[in-house]
Every structure is written in structure tokens, then in C-alpha cells.
Amino acid sequence: MKAFLFFYNIGFSALHAATRFLSVSSPRLKSFFTVRKGSVQELLQNTSLQAGNDLVIWVHAASVGEFEQARPVINRVRSSGTSCKIVVSFQSPSGYNLRKSCSDADLVVYHPLDTRKNAREFIRHLQPDIVLVMRYDFWVNHLWQARQSGARLILAGAVLQDNSIYLKPCMRWFYQRVFRLFDRIFTVSHHDTRKFHDLLDAGQAITAGDPRYDQVWQRSRSTDVIENLRHNYSGHTVLVAGSTWREDERCLLDVFKKLGNEISLIIVPHETDRKTIHHLESELSSRGIAGSLFSQCGEQYNPEEVLIIDKKGFLAELYSMASIAYVGGGFGINVHNTLEPAVYGIPVIFGPNHHNSPEAEALIEEECATEIRSSADLNVVLRNLIEHPDKRESQGKKAGSFVRERLGATELIAREILSPGSTG
Q1: What angle do CA 136, 104, 72 make, to 5 degrees?
Q2: Do 182 and 154 touch, CB atoms closer than 8 A?
Q3: What is the separation of C-alpha 218 from the centre of its chain, rounded to a whole number of angstroms?
Q4: Is 51 left (phi over 0), alpha (psi -120 to 50) or beta?
Q5: What is the CATH number of the domain that holds 124?
Q6: How far apart are CA 277 and CA 86, in angstroms?
Q7: CATH number at residue 242
Q8: Looking at the domain assignment, is residue 18 inside a domain?
Q9: 240: which DSSP letter?
Q10: 167 and 274 share a domain?
Q11: pLDDT by residue (tens digit) across 227-281?
Q12: Distances in Å between the alpha carbon of 294 and those of 94, 221, 267, 388?
């Protein structure tokens, strides 16, 4: 392991020096270094972390998505009654800025630069009992120092795709040693577990599932924000299109024009800034489609018009009133969250780019979701679901069962935190 650390630090030092040099002419890189300077100071200023004999848990998430995976685990640990302090670190500015005031954590910080000095200082002041890393984003010096200090290291939400960088010939040796730092690795599926065992010699990997299933299930229990909307759309076949981008919207509106009043369409764009909303209104106008903005409707909504949701925060609840869901992003880099609608027991539709989303792939495999590649595909799929309610109900039931059968990851991970070694 010492040789591994030696070569890692040579490589990291070279990368560090190069990015420092480039930061002179790059405000973004300069900010990357600046915001990380105060992480240790924030620990020192938070005197409550040093008080008592509380269990100290350090949760690291690359960005918002990984933190949302950790959130149900954090809530479960809190609800156990165990006296604990929870520090959350982020790598990305978006994750930190969106969750820096999160009430689930005692402190939210940027992950320090992964130098040996920073790692020694950070771990010495934090003194974690448990380090929980969500999914990926491994900073070896900090992990090594935490392990040397006696902390128990847990990796959760781990996946190992066939094209993973972990398995590349020049990288496998490196990642085998990274994963040896962890006392327990919780994978998303049995398939992932087998690959961790066979390809990375990580015998401490066991299958837990994905805490996001538990999270969407918990969120689905509360749907009181949109009762007025639900009342207005009662008796209609409702298509809720969530996290949409321009290509998704063009496809949806072309098909809506053909379907007429056979379906009610609610569009929730990925971004709700004025430019995005104005562009979407223009798309409706150019097709002669009537539409309205959620922010301007008061308490009356016309199900025959396309409703544009121009506020953020309740997409998951909107799915609860849908007959069918369309999830955006599949014509771009990758489809967005497909579990949010699936938990409500409704058919799910999305575009072709979903191969970086294990849950989307699994939904298709289990016949809970349908991939479309064009507006013509979408037209066929929607007509089939509208004209055959029995098929719509059957596919929806499969989607709901798919989520329910995968609950339980949160409990397993929380048990390992509260009773180390109890999961195997």
C-alpha cells in the first residue's frame, strides 16, 4: 500500500501543479482552489463537533445526486436515536451550493484538495468514526488517513458497468487498491457484486440495492401540495413529462397535436428560467397549441391546454396524478430520474440515451418502461396506452412492483453504520 500511495501522490502532485498553473487564466479553476481553503477552518469553528462522545459520521458525495442517495440513510441513522454528528462534503460547487444549508447535516463543506497535508489536518480535526462514500469519487489520501485513524470506511450505491474505468487494463491495479481501503462495499445489484468479487478482488462487497428506491418510496407517501391540480384533472388521461429538454419538448408537442383531446399534457422543463419558458411557449404557439403557465393559473386549470410548470420543487408529486410519465434527457446525455414516476405504478417512457442509468435499463428489461427514438415512436406508444387501459394498468403495476421489490438498502447501510460488522 505504501508503494501505491507513493505513486498516487506523484501523479496527484503533477496534476495539482498543472491545474494551479491553468487557474491563473481560468476563473473556474481559480474558484475550485479558493473555495476549498476553508474546509478545515470550518471544522475548527464548529465546536459542537468536538463536544461529547457522539458518533462522528463523514458522508462524501460528488454532487447532489449522490447526496440524495445518502439522504435516506442519514435520516434513518438520525431516527435511531443514536447521538451523532454528521458532516457532509461535496466535490462539485453545484452540490455544495444547493445543499450547504441542509438541515440533515451538522456541517456541509467542500472536500479539501487531496494532498497528504490536507488529509492529515482534516482527519485530525474531524476524527470520524464512520466514513460513508456514495457511489464513487475516491480521494485516496483522505481515505487512507481516515482508515489509519481507526474509522470504518463504507462505500454505498456502488455499480460496476462493463465499460467502467475501474476495469480498464491500466486502471484495474489502481482501483483494486482503492477498494481495499473500504471495510464494506454495498452494491446496487447481485451482478455488480459478482463483478466486484471476480474482477476487482473485493470480497467485502455485498448487495444492498440503491437507497434512492427507499427515498422515492418515502416521498411518494406525501402528495398534498397539488390537490387543486389533481381535482381539475380528475377523469382525464394525464401525461406528465418531467425534466424535459428542447428535443423532448418538440417530440411531445408534435404528438400532442395529433392526439388532440385524447390526453392532457403537463410539461415540467428541466430548467425554469425565463428564456427556457419563453422558448417553450413559442414552440406551442408555432403549432397552434393552447398553453398556460402554472404560476399564472391561480386555482383553475384547463386540462385541454398544455400546462407548463414554471416553478421547481414538486415534480415527484406531479407524477402522482399522472396516468403515464415521460422522463426527459433521453435525447441528450442521459435520461433523468425514472424511479420518481415508477414508484406511483404508472408506465414510463423516455428517449434512447439511458445506458448510464442502471434503473432505466432495468425498467425496460422488466417491461415497466418503453424507449422511444422519435415522435413517431412516441405516437405509437401513447396511442397504445390510451386505447388499451388494461395494458396501461398492467405496465404500471409492474413499475410499482419493480420499486417495492427493491426497497431495503437504507436499512442495511444504516445497520452497518450503527452496528459495524452486522451486515456480514
Answers
A1: 55
A2: yes
A3: 15
A4: beta
A5: 3.40.50.11720
A6: 39
A7: 3.40.50.2000
A8: no
A9: E
A10: no
A11: 888 888 999 999 999 999 999 999 999 999 999 889 999 999 999 999 999 999 9
A12: 26, 23, 10, 30
